[in-house]
Design brief:
Elements: H1 11-19, H2 28-35, E1 38-42, E2 48-54, E3 62-67, H3 72-89, E4 96-100, H4 109-123, H5 126-134, H6 140-147, H7 151-158
Parallel strand pairs: 1-3
Antiparallel strand pairs: 2-3, 2-4
Helix pairs in contact: 1-2, 3-4, 6-7
This protein binds zinc ion.
Length: 162
């Protein structure tokens, strides 16, 4: 299985992520919490999946807003995608970043690719996928269910052409 290349993560982020990837599903809220990022399920426009917003007053606290109208698995991917932007790109974001439903935000395509790649690493770490497979789980839908991601996301992760 090919690995997507993502930049080397700073240790604080790598540790915060790994700490909550011990069992399926990955504890996404706990990762955000350890990183000091708030997650708020919000009433966002239909065309928007998520946002990463810098606090206007303290200028250092970041909040992820995720669209309450989207499916829970989709929300999890969006939160992971915004966590990735926070870890990799917050220095170039300014005050806020708005990701549409195609995860286009005005950042470069390369940065969106990095955010998607890291989101996949966060939600679907290989060690949990191989552990589930070793336990006998081969069905993509069941693997997706165990990790609380969409079957489409799991297919992409596994390199299955759809
Ligand atoms: Zn994005």
């Amino acid at each position: 299985m090919a690995r997507l290349s993502i930049p080397q993560l700073p240790p604080y982020a790598a540790e915060a992520i790994a700490r909550h990837q011990v069992e399926a599903p990955v504890k996404l809220g706990a990762i955000a919490n350890d990183l000091g990022v708030k997650v708020v399920i919000s009433d966002l426009p239909l065309a928007v999946s998520g946002m990463l917003v810098l606090d206007k007053d303290d200028r250092q606290t970041w909040t992820i807003k995720v669209n309450r109208h989207e499916h829970r698995n989709r929300q999890r991917f969006t939160i992971a995608h915004e966590i990735a932007h926070y870890v990799l790109h917050r220095d170039v974001i300014g005050n806020e970043l708005v990701d549409d439903t195609f995860y286009r935000s005005g950042l470069s395509e390369r940065r969106e690719f990095e955010a998607n790649a890291l989101a996949a690493e966060i939600l679907m770490p290989w060690h949990l996928i191989t552990q589930l497979m070793r336990d006998g789980e081969r069905d993509v839908n069941k693997l997706a269910e165990a990790l609380q991601v969409s079957p489409a996301a799991m297919n992409i992760r596994l390199g299955v052409l759809t």
